[in-house]
Structure formats: C-alpha cells, structure tokens
Amino acid sequence: MADSSTVKSIEYLNGKFFLLDQTRLPLEVVVEEQKSVEQVWDSIKKLKVRGAPAIGVAGAYGLLVAMRDGSALSRQDFLEEVRKQADYLDSSRPTAVNLHWALQRVVEKLSASKESDGAGLLRLLEREAMEIHREDIEVCRKIGENGVELIKEGMGLLTHCNAGRLATSDYGTATAPMYLAHQRGIGFTVYSDESRPLLQGSRLTAWELQQAGIDVYTITDNMAAYVMRHGLIDMVIVGTDRVAANGDVANKIGTLGVAILARHFDIPFYVASPFSTIDLNTRTGEDIVIEERDEEEVTSFGARRTAPQGIKVRNPAFDVTPHQLVTGFITDRGIVKPPYEENLRRVFA
C-alpha cells in the first residue's frame, strides 16, 4: 500500500483530473479519474474528496471538467454556462466556504478577463484552477511554519476529524505544524478522535500520521475527557470548514464538545485555518448553514445496522464552536488572537 506522503487527495496530470476515493481508506487506495461534472459533484457529496481546502480545489477543477468541451462557444455563452455549472457544483455541500470561494473566484476571473472566445476562456480556467491548487499547497505549508513553534518536546496533542494531507492538496491544516515538528525531530504524541459517524479521524488522520512515522493513538470520541483528565493532552489543534467574522468556528460534528472539554481542563484550543476559510461576510456562527446528512450514516456501523428500523435520526455533519472557546487561529498569515472580530478583519480583509 502507498504511504500518505505519496498519496495525493487531488492530482491534475496531462489534462486529466484525479481524486483519491477517501471512502475506501485505509483498506484500499483507489484513485478515480473525474470524467464529468456530475461525477465531481457526486465525489464531493459522497465525501470521496473532503476537507474544506480540498473541496475548494476540487470545485475549481470540476468547473474545468464541466467546460472542457466549451472551446467553440462564444464568450457570452461560455460565461453563462460556467456560472450555471458553478451553481451546480456549489450545491454539493453547503457548509464549507472554500467550495463557494473557489468557484466564485474562477467565475469572477473569467468574467473580468479580456478573452474573446470560449477557447481563450477555457485556457484561463485551467490556469486559474491550477493556481488555486498551487496556492493551497503553499498556504498549508505556511500554516505549518506558523504553528510549529507551539509544539514542544514530549507534548500530547489531540485532533478531531481529518484536517490532514488528505483534506488538502498537501501538508494539511491542523496537521501541518505536526509534520514540520516531526521533520525537525521534535517528539510528541497525537491522540486522534475517531470522529463518528464516518470515522475520518480513525480511517484517515490516524492512517496518514502513522504512515508518516508520527506517534499516534486512535481514541473514540467519548474518550477525549478521559485522556484530558489524565494529563495526556497539552494542546488541541483542529481544522475548520468555515470561520465567521466574529471567530465562531464551524467544524466536524463533535468539535464543540472537544472545545468545551479543553476549556474545562485549561488546555489551549487552536484552530488551523487558511485564508480561504475565513468568511468575513458571515457575521456569526448562527448564520452558517449546517449540512444534515443521510440517516444511514448514524444507524449503521460499516455494513451492519446498529439502530432499530424506523428510528428517528439527526445527523448534522458540523457544529459551531463559539469564538470564546478558541485560544487562537493558526493561519498562513500568522497566529491570530482575540479580539477576533477586529483581528481577523485586520489580517484578512
């Protein structure tokens, strides 16, 4: 099996767009060429590609897939169609702001260009998608550089869900400081919440950290209080799918509980976030649309049903952590501390 340093969540090679099917990990490494915009939409919706930054990059390439036969269109017809396809891709997942951000960025770039025909617009679309991909790698590397000094020899770190290499183009967000600390020879231990119901922590985070040679334990979500109570956790680092202007954080369901526990045990709680996840147009976390997913994710564990037939289910994919519980944001532009409404706008406006 390929290790996590060689497996990429997203690749664009020789004009072809590939996604790693993360629903098959850690047992199988399956890479699928994306041949239609419907396939890209489905890959995002079904979490074959997931993680806010990776979804954004996938959306940009998804537009390229959608428009690849559009070189013969007029400028007006091309722009009308690309807006339509952007709206379609944007409907796949509502909570992660990066998807909307990337799609909007591409559409605005094309609309503002002087390209006179579909062929020119298609070339520009390809360049912009590739640039978003390149920027994601660079931004995650900078998050690692800005956060690595927080990790000290012998520390215990807790993370929730997967904000690692598999959730981005490389490095990850929450894991970026971990990878750089490991490269520097700093010894530390990571406790990875399994992250029910889809187990992104145990299937993905634990796998990629283990493959990288980092000391990692998988724990169930309800063990977080236990490891904190016994002094095994010195710091929490999580990723995020959207940060509101006031610093409220939307992240994988269960993050709020971890933040409350961290506050109770006086443990620093950091959120790693690229600039594209900071949404200054969303005032507070109350304004963030929370995706509700299929009930079967909760009523089954693998292929086995674990709940009564006909039981009523709630399955929000995310929750919102109030900014008061956040120690700081590890970003590509430095570590941002409170007051967040002022400092996030100063750094990212």
Please characterize this protein's 3D structure:
It is a single chain. By secondary structure, the chain is α/β, with parallel strands linked by helices. It folds into two domains: 10-142, translation initiation factor eif-2b, domain 1 (Four Helix Bundle (Hemerythrin (Met), subunit A)); 147-348, Translation initiation factor eif-2b, domain 2 (Rossmann fold, 3-Layer(aba) Sandwich), CATH 3.40.50. It contains eleven helices and 16 strands. The strands form four sheets. Strands 6-5-4-7-10-15-16 form a seven-stranded mixed beta sheet, with helices on both faces. Strands 11-8-9-14 form a four-stranded mixed beta sheet, covered by helices on one side. β5 (188-193), α7 (200-211) and β6 form a beta-alpha-beta unit. α2 (52-67) crosses α4 and α4 (97-112) crosses α5. The longest helix has 30 residues, at 118-147. The termini are far apart. The relative contact order is 0.12. The model has no long low-confidence stretch (mean pLDDT 96).
